[in-house]
Design goal:
By secondary structure, this protein is α/β, with parallel strands linked by helices. It has a nine-stranded mixed β-sheet, sandwiched between helices. α8 links the parallel β2 and β3. α1 runs antiparallel to α4. The chain is globular. It starts with a helix and ends in an 8-residue tail after the last strand.
Length: 526
């Protein structure tokens, strides 16, 4: 029925009728695009039946690439209903509902019905999405108590009211690479003012939690659904601390990626419930395999907050981790697992033409792309074809005069390329010294839509941060190393990793270290 964004805007405009629209929305409604009465009748019928045809059309006419840039993933009704039902069960209902990143208004459509006396605020920067919210509100009869704030949620201010505010929604998933310096600086400063340390690697959804912590008052409450990686990664530490201190975390429900908690995107979801200023003694945690199993959000296992606050990774509170069976050990008992080195500027430190005059002893053949390991198969037997990484010593005074002259010439070019100003370069002993780790006995990929590749590193190549290195903590023969790598290739599945937005499965070093292998005496050593 709807084949373009202009047709969708025309449909939304026709549903709204004669109400005056803000200029950005008005410009989208073209008089030349007509909508039939039958189309309007059908769409109104679907909306009144609890569906969101406008949001569905939006997901069809705007490409997945364009939606991904804005973090626009619309929430299935089963999740919306579970979250709103949780809020409706609170002892005191909300006087105001704020949807942080409203999209087409699915959360507000459910909230308008559950809380007939509440003021409704949609925060949405996309004028087409705002137009859809307005159209849905018109059809369902809550336009008179709806306010649309067409601003970034991080700029939202709320006037005081008598009664609690419910914060609810699906904050946009935008990774830190797409967040500009202005907002990264805001995030760092805002976290510091609240007594938290913040990482510049935090995604936009964590920013939304922080803004909620800023503007919410004791007695307010909320539930957000986001991607789940913040449970374990370093940048999620600020959110974990907020939930423990001030934001008042009450429950965490992790939804398996196979349940597709974000329409069309294979990613593990996390519903986080909170009561501002009123953190309970127990934190409810649960893992669900299907979105149909979500209700009620009061279900789950109670974990004392003392245990939660002391956990460096929260997925272990939720995940049903297999117990080590008799005859098995964890890989970490035999190996230290280290992610490869970060150069801070691959364009400079992966040797190119400008490095042609550098002494050969500072050029190290290295795995710089995951596909190099995938192509190697079971064994990396040669460094032929691998690019070289430049690793200079911290103390350049140890170089002879000829080496120093050639290195100084290269570093002058590197400075012109601003390699000395990267975050990584400014946080190592010498900006010019990458600090490659020694060759690992086994290399493994850690982020793909497939299980990791475990490759014996017979060529003694170095590796960058696109792979992990497994370093034995005790002497192990080649036969034992081969048997361990073979066992890992045959037994490790995607289920042991963590699913990110887009369906990528990631294995952090700690997750690799917790993989199970047979005891040494039980290994099938050839």
């Amino acid at each position: 029925m709807i084949a373009s964004e202009s047709e969708l805007a025309a449909l939304a405009g026709a549903l709204i009728g004669k109400a005056r629209l803000p200029a950005p929305e008005r410009r989208l409604v073209l008089p030349s695009v007509k909508v039939s009465r039958e189309e309007l009748r059908q769409v109104r019928t679907l909306i009144r039946a609890g569906q969101d045809p406008l949001g569905d059309y939006f997901s069809e006419v705007r490409s997945s690439e364009a939606r991904r840039e804005q973090g626009q993933t619309y929430t299935p009704n089963a999740i919306v209903d579970a979250m709103v039902a949780w809020a409706a069960a609170e002892a005191v209902g909300p006087r105001r509902v704020v949807d942080a990143g409203a999209g087409s208004g699915r959360f507000l459509m459910a909230a308008a019905k559950a809380f007939p006396g509440a003021e409704l605020i949609a925060v949405e920067v996309d004028p087409l999405a705002a137009l859809m919210v307005r159209a849905n509100a018109t059809v369902l009869g809550f336009a008179d108590r709806l306010t649309i704030e067409s601003i970034d949620y991080r700029s939202l201010d709320l006037p005081p009211i008598d009664g609690p505010t419910l914060f609810i929604g699906n904050p946009p998933y935008v990774r830190h690479h797409e967040i500009g310096p202005k907002w990264k600086s805001w995030f760092s400063n805002a976290a510091r003012e609240l007594g938290f340390e913040a990482s510049a690697l935090a995604g936009l959804h964590v920013h939304f939690f922080l803004r909620t912590r800023q503007i919410a008052k004791p007695g307010d409450f909320g539930a957000f659904i986001t991607a789940a990686e913040w449970l374990d990664v370093n940048y999620g530490k600020v959110l974990r601390r907020m939930l423990a201190d001030g934001l008042g975390g009450t429950a965490l429900h992790v939804i398996d990626s196979k349940a597709l908690p974000f329409n069309g995107t294979m990613s593990t979801g996390a519903i986080t419930c909170f009561r501002v200023g009123h953190r309970p003694d127990q934190f409810t945690v649960r893992h669900v395999d299907s979105i149909q199993d979500l209700m009620p959000l009061s279900a789950g296992r109670s974990v004392p907050w003392s245990e939660v606050a002391g956990a460096s990774r929260w997925s272990i509170l939720v995940r049903n981790t297999p117990h080590v069976r008799h005859g098995e050990i964890e890989l970490g008992e035999l190996f230290r697992v280290h992610r490869g080195q970060v150069t801070g500027c691959n364009e400079v430190w992966i040797a190119g033409d400008e490095a042609a005059d550098l002494p050969a002893r500072f050029l190290f053949p290295s795995i710089t792309k995951a596909r190099e390991l995938l192509a190697a198969g079971e064994n990396l037997t040669t460094v032929a074809g691998l690019r070289k990484v430049i690793d200079l010593p911290v103390d350049l005074d140890e170089l002879n005069s000829d080496e120093r002259r050639r290195v100084d010439a290269f570093l002058a070019w590197a400075k012109q390329a601003k390699a000395h100003k990267s975050y990584v370069a400014t946080h190592r002993p010498a900006w010019w010294s990458v600090g490659l780790k020694h060759p690992a006995a086994i290399l493994c990929t850690y982020m793909a839509r497939r299980a990791p590749a475990f490759v014996r590193n017979r060529a003694k190549a170095r590796h960058l941060n696109i792979s992990h290195g497994l370093y034995p903590v005790q002497p192990l023969s080649d036969g034992v190393l081969d048997a361990i790598a073979k066992h890992l290739r045959e037994t490790v599945s995607l289920a042991s990793g963590r699913v990110y937005a887009g369906g990528l499965v990631k294995f952090e070093p700690g997750e690799v270290a917790r993989l199970h292998i047979p005891e040494l005496a039980s290994l099938d050593v050839q």
